[in-house]
Amino acid sequence: MKKRQKSMLTEVIVVITITAIAVFGMVNFKDYVNKSEAIKSMNNLSIIVKNHKDQYGMIPSESYIEQVKDYLQGSLRLGKLQYRSRWIDYDSSPDTILAYTERNYRSPFVKSGFVVLRLDGQVQWMGNAEFKQTFATQQKPEEIECLKKDIPNPVE
Question: Is the pLDDT of residue 155 over 50?
């Protein structure tokens, strides 16, 4: 191989390597942005729930959330939102999960999990295992039965 051919081959390999790294970085960045937007949208929902609770003395119904969800900035990032108002009692603790949505990412740097809105208005990201453990302690038998029968509960 001549010197010029070696030089061109090296340049092609460098360009391919840089392109692969850039594509890998963009995929991870996209997943990070999607996760951040989902959390931000859930924070906006938290404000709506808090305002409704302050004004009417109770958390909003599923139908109310269904109406306002589409107007939230970044609502598409929430995906299939599960709103649990019908399973919340007046004596429920403030850390009870009021709403949640599962987010799955392929990125090795952005792990899959759940964006959670608690009854006290806090929004947090929970890993799959932590969510399932926490959620299992808060579910009522009726809710578990509805989920087994696949009765619609999500706000879409």
Answer: no
